[in-house]
Every structure is written in structure tokens, then in C-alpha cells.
Amino acid sequence: MTTLLERLRARAPGLFVLVDPERTAPRAAADLAARAEREGAAGLLIGTSFDGATRTGAVAAAIKAACALPLLLFPGSAAQLVPEVDGVLLLSLVSGRNPQYLIEEHVRAVPFFRRHPVAAISTAYILVDGGRVTAVEAVSQTRPLPADKPEIAAAHAFAGGMIGMAAVYLDTGSGAERPVAPAVIRAVREMVPLPLWVGGGMRRPEQVAAAREAGADFIVGGTAVEDGGAETVRALVAAVRDGGR
């Protein structure tokens, strides 16, 4: 039987659209999801850095009703877990040393996964400096890895693979001044064969194309897509294709 991760890999390379349920009402999220599907996005993520995601379930259900794209939860904590998704990127913040985001939230998630048959993709989450303090840094109380030391991010990704993680997510955080540098992506890609998501600060097509050319499987667009709508999705999807040539 094909696993969720195998089905996702078959959609690579591609653009994932990130929806913040605290900033996007269910109807608006449904419209965004339908546009993303029409424009050729590979999938959607839903999540926020804050625990107060009171309408995550409603937003996820609206998205699922509006399109057939894979919908993955990108949770900031176990409190945000909802069953109205295809799977969960079960993030372990391996770039930090705060035990809450290395293992504690995973323990708190056990009752949810025992109740709901939702696929969990164990993911090495690596925060890289994006030029400003973002919500994920402030909430997790962890320092991002230096952007000019690709070998450090690559070592963290390799360590994640050694302890059994199934995917890697490189991020500079929502609203970062700059995205993950291509040199960092390339160093990680050379070290691990795992599916690689890259997000944070991806505003322009050339940034997306550079991330794809460096080896990202999936590039994540959030704020730029919220602000720019369908034309932005179209441009970023095209940039993923162009970056792979």
C-alpha cells in the first residue's frame, strides 16, 4: 500500500501553499485552496506558530471540501492537531535545544494519534536565520542556525536522518527578511536524500526558482500567496518548474 509520503514524493517538485488559520477564515481558505489547485500547486499546509488556533479544524474542513490537493498540518504544538487533514508534519525542532519542541509536544500528541488514524511524517525542522526575529523563534525560544554556515544545517539534517526522521523542513519563519540561502539548501540536499521542504521569506519567483535549483523538493509560499492571490500562485508554480530545468 502506498504511504502518504510516497504519494507526496510523486508530486515533487512542487509548491505548497501555507494557510494560517488565525489569519484566514474558512471561506477565504477554501477560495485560496481552489485557486492553488487550479494553478498547479502540489499541496497545502495549514498551521500557525501560536497555540490559539481555535478554528484550525473548520479551516481544514473548508479546504478539503474545496479541493483534492493533499493537506498537511504544520503544527506549532500538540494543541493544534485536528483530524480534518491528510497527514501531519510531525516537527522536531532539531536546530534548537528546547526539549518542548524536541520531544515534549510529541508526547502530548500521543492521545490524538491514538484516537485518530492520521498519518504522521516525522520531520527534522531546522530554523535558519532569516534576518529578523520571527514568531517561531520567539515562541520556541530557540536560536536559528547561521545562514552563512551551510555545513551546520547539513549536519543537523543528516543527524535527523540517522535517528529515523523521514523528511526535512528548512525554514526562516513567516515574514522573514530573506529565505533560506541556496547554499544551505544545496548542502542539505547533498547530505540527505529525504524529502525536503523549504519555506520562509519566499516572496519572488526568482527566490523559488533558486531554492528548487538548489535541491528543494517542495517550496512553501505563505504570506506572498495570501497577499498576491491566484497570479502569485501561478508565478511561483512556474518558478518551481523553471528552477528544476
Descriptive report:
By secondary structure, the protein is an alpha/beta fold. Helices cover 43% and strands 17% of the residues. Strands 1-2-3-4-5-6-7-8 form an eight-stranded parallel beta barrel, surrounded by six helices. Helix 7 packs parallel to helix 8 (182-191) and helix 9 (205-214) packs parallel to helix 11 (230-243). The chain starts with a helix and ends with a helix. 52% of the residues are buried.
* Average pLDDT reading: 94
In the predicted model, the low-confidence regions spanning at least 5 consecutive residues are: none
Estimate what percentage of residues fall within beta strands.
15-25%
Number of helices: 11
Query: Taking strands numbered 1, 2, ... along the chain, how are they ordered across the largest sheet?
Result: 1-2-3-4-5-6-7-8
Radius of gyration: 16 Å
In N-to-C order, the SSE pattern is HEHEHEEHHEHHEHEHEHH
The helix fraction, in percent, is 40-55%
Q: Biggest sheet, open or closed, and with what strands and sense?
A: 8 strands, parallel, barrel
Euclidean distance between termini CA atoms: 32 Å
Helix/strand class: alpha/beta
Shape: globular
Total beta-strand segments: 8
List the helices and strands and how they pair.
Layout: H1 4-9, E1 14-19, H2 26-38, E2 43-46, H3 56-66, E3 71-73, E4 87-93, H4 99-108, H5 110-115, E5 119-127, H6 135-140, H7 150-162, E6 167-171, H8 182-191, E7 196-199, H9 205-214, E8 218-221, H10 223-228, H11 230-243
Parallel strand pairs: 1-2, 1-8, 2-3, 3-4, 4-5, 5-6, 6-7, 7-8
Helix pairs in contact: 2-3, 7-8, 8-9, 9-11
